[in-house]
Amino acid sequence: MKKVKVGLVQMSCTKDKQENLDKAIAKVREAAAKGAQIVCLQELFTSLYFCDVEDYDNFDLAEAIPGPSTDALQVVARELGVVIIASLFEKRAEGLYHNTTAVLDADGSYLGKYRKMHIPDDPAFYEKFYFTPGDLGYKVFQTKFAKIGILICWDQWYPEASRITALMGADIMFYPTAIGWATDQDEETNQDQYNAWQTIQRSHAVANGVPVVSVNRVGFEQDGAMKFWGGSFATNGQGKILYLGSHDQEETEVVELDLSESDFFRKHWPFLRDRRIDSYQPITKRYIDGD
Fold it and tell me: What stretch or stretches form a coiled coil here (predicted)?
């Protein structure tokens, strides 16, 4: 029986990049003190969620990966013996930027990065202004404690992304994310949106028979127009909620995942085995209408 303890860090952010990094490191330490072996930070945790506006000055927030933030986190990972999943704004070259997550192993080594594949362009989420779609493909990383798959926020709506990540052998799928409610919405709409967000990710756990860990930011941003809804959660490979965060509080929680359950779930609910891969070619079309 293989069990892994994962830490979820749900926090609010400020305009001060160093302050956010220091806070995240303190929370990684808190998670490690609670027994976490793998700690996942939320999407773009070193800053406010700046994609609410199209502002060229925000590109100054980007950094190389590896770079200053990963350097600081590698020291912490090595000291504490924990894996750290760190979502950062990557400057790849002059004028070329990505929404990227770095993975640092428990010995402090840099294992690599995943670049967000699906990029939204919605009111208050103008990510296509900032981020080039990922070109590394879907990724898994063999860490000391488990083989982990990383997807980022908008990727969470796409079963194709989670399926491919699972087929690459991911023991756990992690989703660093940043999503919230417009504060002028009614409560019913808020709950419908959150339920849709949680449901689609739980369905990835069920369809693939692997645990899913989703870590979201919390707090009011955008001059009070946006309430990031927190609600971070962890499920087992059958979609059962093992931990559910609040909508308005910072939280550092550690959850134990039993990775041996995946074999049981896949044997008794053999969705992975019974796939008709010979019939799936049309999925590569934008729409099936004869054109």
Answer: none
First to last CA, the chain: 50
261 catalytic, yes or no? Answer: no
* Catalytic, out of 5, 153, 221, 261: 153
Helices H / strands E in the chain, number of each? 5, 15
Active site residue 27: no
What 3-state class would DSSP assign to 63?
strand
E runs forming strands in the chain: 3-10, 38-41, 83-93, 96-104, 110-115, 140-142, 147-150, 172-177, 180-182, 212-216, 218-221, 226-229, 233-235, 241-244, 251-258
Q: Looking at 13, 43, 90, 91, which residue is catalytic?
A: 43
To 10 degrees, the CA torsion angle through 265, 5, 11, 185? 10
Return the domain boundaries, the chain.
Answer: 3-284
CB atoms within 10 A of CB 169: 11
pLDDT above 80 for 101 = yes
Edge-to-edge strand ranges of the sheet holding 218-221: 180-182, 226-229, 218-221
Is 43 one of the catalytic residues? yes
- Percent of the chain with pLDDT strictly greater than 90: 98
1: pLDDT strictly greater than 80 = no
pLDDT in the model for residue 290 = 78
- Kindly state the greatest CA–CA separation across the chain: 58
Residues 118, 153: Cα–Cα separation, whole Å: 9
The confidence score (pLDDT) of residue 291 equals: 72
Evaluate if residue 139 carries a pLDDT over 80: yes
Catalytic residue of the set 116, 127, 221, 253: 116
